[in-house]
Design brief:
- The structure holds two protein chains of two kinds.
- Chain A is α+β, with helices and mostly antiparallel strands.
- Chain A has helices at 3-12, 41-61, 100-114; strands at 17-24, 30-35, 70-74, 77-83, 88-94.
- In chain A, helix 1 (3-12) runs antiparallel to helix 3 (100-114).
- The radius of gyration of chain A is 13 Å and the shape is globular.
- By secondary structure, chain B is an alpha+beta fold.
- Chain B contains four helices and six strands.
- The chains are: A alpha+beta, B alpha+beta.
- The A-B interface holds A 23-24, 26-29, 42-43, 45-47, 49-50, 53 and B 105-106, 108-112, 114-115.
Chain lengths: 115, 156
């Protein structure tokens, strides 16, 4: 198993995580993925990277520095993202009732591994 | 930015693509380089050059794939410092088409362009008319048709 796959494995082991991906922040392309059926990986990757780019600019404009973690809660689940130092985004798609703190911890670990 | 089309059925799908993928320049053409629609180009000479070069690249890569006993390459992406160029072919009811898109790396990304290109393909397939029977191309008609197309593409 590659280090990227191992990093994603830590994230997908958390109950309620439907997908975990490493996404190239510049291109919006998937570097590594572990998806449950029904999750459109390439679509999530492209749109999450686009959002990350806009959020980065918003943070810079607001003088807040680089974003470290974002959590978008929707009716039927959540999108959690941690940007890694290497320009990779670690993305998780979860159920609405997931333990966000635990997923965040594993995303940060995966980001360290990806960096 | 104004999109213009010689064949109007291409306009709505192309406009949706431009809006979603935030492409800077888009050209829809046949594999022979006949332009069906354009967006973002300011001069006719630029459209003609881009169409000729795009069609030539598609022809070269298709032949390369044939030599390698592979199916034709689906898409080609060239990424520069500030811009990316995405060139891909598709099948529609009208026949094979080629799209050339130039996108700003600060605004869009290859992932977004690929994602919405899939949507564009589906939209063009739905909107495309049935193929018309091939007509003989006469040298006398060619220049007139080219001029008419360019006038339409630039709203003259």
């Amino acid at each position: 198993m590659t280090s990227y796959a191992q990093a994603l494995d830590l994230v997908t082991r958390v109950p309620g995580v439907r997908a975990a991906m490493l996404v190239s922040g510049d291109d919006g392309l998937i570097v590594a993925e572990q998806l449950m059926e029904g999750v459109k990986g390439s679509t999530v990757a492209a749109l999450a990277a686009s959002l990350a780019s806009k959020l980065r600019r918003a943070m810079e404009a607001a003088g807040l520095g680089a974003s470290m973690f974002w959590h978008l809660q929707a009716e039927q689940g959540a999108l959690l993202v941690v940007p890694a130092a290497s320009g990779i985004l670690v993305v998780a798609v979860t159920d609405p009732t997931v333990n966000v703190g635990l997923v965040r911890l594993e995303l940060l670990r995966a980001a360290e591994a990806a960096a | 930015m104004t999109a213009r089309a010689v064949e109007n059925w291409t306009l709505a799908p192309m406009n949706a693509f431009i809006q979603e993928a935030q492409a800077r320049l888009v050209l829809l053409m046949t594999p022979a380089g006949q332009v069906l629609a354009q967006s973002g180009f300011a001069r006719a000479v630029d459209v003609m050059s881009a169409a000729a070069l795009g069609a030539a690249i598609m022809a070269s890569t298709s032949e390369l794939a044939r030599q390698l006993h592979q199916p034709p390459f689906a898409a080609l992406n060239h990424q520069g410092v500030r811009h990316g160029v995405f060139l891909a072919g598709m099948q529609t009811g009208r026949g094979p088409l080629v799209m050339l898109a130039v996108y700003d790396l600060g605004v869009s990304s290859l992932g977004l362009v690929q994602l919405f290109f899939e949507q564009l393909m589906a939209d063009l397939r739905t909107a495309s008319p049935a193929p018309s029977p091939a007509k003989q191309v006469l040298a006398a008609d060619f220049e007139r048709e080219l001029t008419e197309s360019l006038n339409t593409l630039f709203g003259r």
